[in-house]
Amino acid sequence: MSRPRQARRNALAGVLIAALAALPWVGLAGEVQRQLADGTRASARYSHGDPDKISVLLVHDFLDTADSRLSRALFERLERARIGVLAPTLALGIGARREPLDCAALHLHHFEQDIRELGDWVDWLLARGRARIVLVGLGYGAWQALALAERSLSPSLQALLMIGPPEPPAVDLDALHAALREAGGGRGELQRQALWDCPRYVAPPEALLSYARWTGPRLIELLGAAPLAVRIIAAERDRRLGRAWRVRLAESGALMQSVPAADDFLNPAHLEALLEVVVAGLTIEG
Amino acid sequence: MQISLARLALLLLGLSALLFGVLGFYTYWQVREVDREQNERQFARAHAEIMRAVDSILSQTRAQVRALASWDEARQQLADPAYYGYWRSERLTLRLTYEHAIGVELYDAQGRALAEAVAAPFVAELRYLDQRPLLVREQGRDFLLLAEPVRAAADDGPVLGFAVLAVDLASALLPPDGLRFAAFDSRVTTLAEQARVPTSDVTGKIRYHVRPDTAALSYQAMLRRLFLHIAVAALLFLGVVMLSLERLVGRPLVRLASNIERLAEDADESRPSGLGVAFAIEELERVRRSINNYQSRLEVMLRGLDRKNRRLWKLAHHDSLTGCLNRRAFEDDWRHILELAERRSTDVSLILMDCNHFRAINDTYGHSVGDDVLKGIAATVRKILGRGDRLYRIANDEFAVIFVDAAREHAAELARRCLASIEQHGFTQFGMREPVRLSVGIAHCFGGDARELQGLYRRANVAMFRAKRPDAPPLAVYEPEMERTADIALSSHAASAVDEAISTGGNVEMSYQPVVDLRSRSPVYYEGLVRLRAEGRLMTPDEFLLQVETRHLEAEFDEAVFAALLNDLNVGRLPPGLGMSINVSGASIVDPAIEKRLAPFTRFMDRHELLLEVTETTLISQLQLASATLERLRHQGFKIALDDFGSGYSSLRYLADMPVDVVKFDITLVRALCEDTPRGRMLAKLVGLLKEPGYTLVAEGLENEHMVERTRTLGFDYGQGYLIGPPLAMEAQPVSG
Lengths: 286, 737
What we know:
The structure holds 2 protein chains of 2 kinds.
Chain A: H1 3-27, E1 29-35, E2 41-47, E3 55-59, H2 69-80, E4 84-89, H3 111-127, E5 133-138, H4 140-151, E6 157-163, H5 173-183, E7 191-195, E8 198-203, H6 205-212, H7 216-224, E9 229-235, H8 243-251, E10 255-259, H9 268-285
Helix pairs in contact in A: 2-9, 3-4, 5-6
Chain B: H1 5-69, H2 72-79, H3 84-95, E1 101-108, E2 134-138, E3 141-151, E4 159-168, H4 169-172, E5 182-183, E6 196-198, H5 202-205, E7 209-210, H6 214-264, H7 282-317, E8 325-326, H8 327-343, E9 346-355, H9 358-384, E10 390-393, E11 398-404, H10 408-424, E12 438-448, H11 450-454, H12 456-468, E13 475-477, H13 483-490, H14 492-503, E14 508-517, E15 523-534, E16 537-539, H15 541-550, H16 554-570, E17 579-584, H17 586-589, H18 594-598, E18 610-615, H19 616-619, H20 623-636, E19 639-645, H21 651-657, E20 662-665, H22 667-673, H23 678-691, E21 696-699, H24 705-714, E22 718-719
Parallel strand pairs in B: 8-10, 12-13, 15-17, 17-18, 18-19, 19-20, 20-21, 21-22
Antiparallel strand pairs in B: 1-4, 2-3, 2-6, 3-4, 5-7, 9-11, 9-12, 10-11, 14-15, 14-22, 15-16
Helix pairs in contact in B: 1-6, 6-7, 9-10, 12-13, 14-15, 14-16, 22-23
């Protein structure tokens, strides 16, 4: 056998060995699709990370998906940090949802459904042996993560990182209640009100009310009674976080950490700073 | 075969038009072929364009319906359609990005529409067929319906339901920038109403028509227009050429031809004055100038000819001596009168005037005097005639006047006045001692036709001959009884006999009258007297000599007589020793050929004495020439006899000047000699007088013994007459004792 032929064989063997070495990592990272308890098909991005480290359940912002830019950036950063991360896309009543749901879309989902779905994903993580879980919530997703933490009794939930939790706008709850009453046992007429980031949110009364009832004071109250360590990371110039709201957040007892000069984490200049703060926070909480 | 220039040009124009017609048809045929090929290409392009358009529509529709089917909210509605109506109107419609999509409906997995009621072209429940792409015609509109399954997951999983998209086919087939090759009417498919067919043969169902290729149409129209313009231009050009040819060449040629034809006409008034307007064609202009120049020269020449003609006519129709119209003019006028008489009844009177003894006057006093006499007669008569009367000199001394539509007495009156004037005219100034007298004959033809008129001249001539008779008055008006004596002189019978004698001599027969010695009464010689045989009888000189003289055929007639005499001499008809006398006319005597004609007689002189008898009157003319000729003949051996002595004017003078051997006394003198009268005694003295120089005297007309005795007594040598012997053929002569 000639030498060049032997050399080619050796090179091919090297490539095969390298591919086999990388196989475990390939099998432990990617999209996860599963059917939830209510039969809804849901999906999530998942990175196994270092088993010895904490795992992160990343909750996206309201009506968003795990493929949002900020979610993806955080996911990838944590993945690079060998931190296991699960970023589910909440179904919002839509099986295999892939796109953010428009505010003007028909919203048939309930707040509690979201919390239950997140709880399913926590269970999924636990089933994967991830004993230490840190919840990371983006925007309104931070409040849903807080609600999850408040309802879950699992000791595996060790901390909560709330990134820019906004103050929900005021909602005419009376009207919603009236509509709900009017609907009797039915689903009632569709309501159109400003809800969270949506200036005109369309939903049946009960569905709308499931979110609207989480008013600012109630959330601050929930925050104050959080059963786990809460760290709030806010951009210094985030318009959704007014001064008063910042004060009230700070007064809740949660650890406030501000990213200087940042206004929008979608700005690449501030995104990296946020990511560093988050990783640092996770390191601290982990 | 001949063809006019205009017709030739017209023929060329027609042929050109035919050629252009053929070319036009060929061009039209070619353009039609190109048009057909272009249409086929255009149809193929249109078909391909429709195919592309349909593919594009299907592609865009499919993309649209797939986008809808994979939309999260569609799955939401299929999972919970409680608020589907709201969602469809508020969300689904907004989701339609395909501009030609007119609506979309969701159906559950069993094919039931989520909406309580759906409008056409949607159906409440999808069948298997409806899950495929369909062409639908509903309510007069054509739609494309495309169904896409909505699955639980984006790309797989169980089918949750169907999204059905409806597209307005008519608007979809019309791209924003329009179709280039195809076009549609109000409907774009061939589908019947409510038809629902799969789109597998969608292009076969599309109803379109091929948009005409405007560039090709423009090109073809331009070609047709170009050809039309060329054809029109060519025809116009040919028309202009034809008109130009006709105007610049044809008309000038016709004018030239007309001018030349008019040149050939005789009438002066139709003779062209030349072509005035110049021609545009240089060569034709040269021809025109040449013709004009030729015409000018011809005009000058014709004017000269006219003058000469007038002069010649005048010369030809006038007598240069007297200034009267001549015989030619007389004949022309007479012809005109005959033509006039053929058209209408015409009264014509003809006067013929003849100068008595004019030849003698001429011979006696010379031609100059004779001419003066004629001029005097003409001048005298012209004075008598009216202004419009025409006087003709139709012969030597014969004049004529014609009166048309004049009274019968008018001619006679004028004639009488003419006679009187002539009688009083002073002819003595010319040295004449005798009076000049005219004999006038008049004939009338009143109301007669042309045939009757044709005999008028002869009748006037008959009358004139009557007037010439010694015992007749000088003016005679024709009467029918005059014909008896006039027939002799004027008969055509005599004229024919004379003509035959001169031309062949076949009818000339000689009679011989003996001339005897009065003492012995034996013949001395015979006088040859000519007779003409005609129509079985012999004509005597009285019957034809007048013809000879009036037609001035004396020399020719003498030659015929000489031939007859020579023949008799040759055959020995005349007994040897006897002489022969030959009558020779005055005209023959002065004829230069007389000696040659008489030369054959000289060979008979040894057997016969030959006398040439010259009539006294005939000798008068050209006396010197005649005298010289006779002198030469006398030297040749001929004896010269002066015939009819005493019947003329100047007998004694002739005797004095002429070489005469024998003097033959005229019968009138012989008769007078025989009378015991002063005249008889004077003549007896004359006989004695003539005897002295030695003339041989012959007495003519001896009719009885008394005359024989008397003449013999008086000294005559010879005698001649019926008593002695009439003229007979030589064979009939009595044998002398």
